[in-house]
Amino acid sequence: MRIGILCFRSYDAYDFKSELRLKEAAEEQGHEATLIQIQNFSLGPDGTLSLEGKKLEAFDGFISRARVIDQVENRLFWIKVLEEKGYKILNGYEALIHCKNKWFATERLRKAGLATLPTWVVEDETTACEMAEKIGYPVVVKAPYGTFGLSVEKAENETQLKAVLWKFWKPDLITPLLLQPLIEEAEGKDLRINVVGDQVVGAIQRTATQGDFRANMELGGSAEAYEPSSELAELALQAVRAFGLDYAGVDLIQTKNGPCVLEVNGNPGFLRITKITGIDVAASIIKLAVSRFQKS
Ligand SMILES: Nc1ncnc2c1ncn2[C@@H]1O[C@H](COP(=O)(O)OP(=O)(O)O)[C@@H](O)[C@H]1O
Ligand SMILES: [Mg+2]
């Protein structure tokens, strides 16, 4: 089988290690895999899709690695084009669009009947302060798009809230922001449950560094292997199904009212989870790709 791995242009020192591991896993299973930089696609006036200037050769399907947090619709363009051309893609356009925006994602989960955190959206300082009073401090402020915990902040009082809001805003660029109660009982812990197809493939519990509430490992959090109960595993599977994602990393947080879905990541890194649990996530993703790309 011939599998294309769609890599998104990177403006930082991102090293494409997950993508390389997917290629290696495909080859281990006897398939051919090509790392494709999406900026090398082009379209001609008759709709011919080319890669590096040559008409796209036959691929059985693609695995997207949508490393995208801004201009999402625009940047997922090539995924949509490939779908239009009839290619099968693991983690396709619609599913990615819906999981990337934290408010739309929360809304979708809520409508699917899954537990989520109560979330307000504000785009004005005075309204934000009024909402925060109602929620009760401390509150968490999040940008609708973000990753690695970098666009998630805490405010203990109104002065801090205003400072946090203006970290996100510029006088000429004020955008919607999410407000949530801080789940203090989580004590800086969350769960990352990795799902491939309809199976849980690896889970970890992450713990924030001292003094932080964000459990992201990119912020220095630590992690250990975790065996989710069948209830948590089912919650994660349902969350992934709500978006129609083929593989995902589901973040769950334990609240005093039970577990809630924090977010569903359509481009999960899996090298750390593999290192911690010994579970070969890349191999599972390739197995799923092969079964989905099989000609019916
Ligand atoms: N309302 C909240 N209360 C407590 N902790 C939270 C809350 N929201 C997020 N967190 C913590 O912050 C981390 C990052 O938040 P998240 O919404 O997953 O953003 P990102 O997409 O940047 O990972 C979570 O993994 C969790 O540990
Ligand atoms: Mg997260």
Record keyword descriptors for this entry.
alpha+beta, Rossmann fold, Dna Ligase, domain 1, five-stranded antiparallel beta sheet, four-stranded parallel beta sheet, 16 strands, 33% helix, globular, binds magnesium ion
Distance between the termini: 14 Å
CATH class category label of the largest domain: Alpha Beta
Annotation field: number of helices? 10
Bound molecules: adenosine-5'-diphosphate, magnesium ion
* Main sheet makeup: 5 strands, antiparallel
Radius of gyration: 20 Å
Give the neighbour order of strands across the main sheet.
14-13-12-15-16
Q: What is the CATH superfamily classification of the largest domain?
A: ATP-grasp fold, B domain
**The CATH topology of the largest domain:** D-amino Acid Aminotransferase, Chain A, domain 1
Give me the strand/helix succession.
EHEEEEEHHEHHEHEEHEEEEHEEHH
Integer average pLDDT: 96
Strand content: 25-35%
Helical proportion, percent range: 25-40%
What ranges have pLDDT less than 50 throughout 5 or more consecutive residues? none
Any idea what the shape is? globular
Can you count the beta strands? Answer: 16
| Helix-strand category | alpha+beta
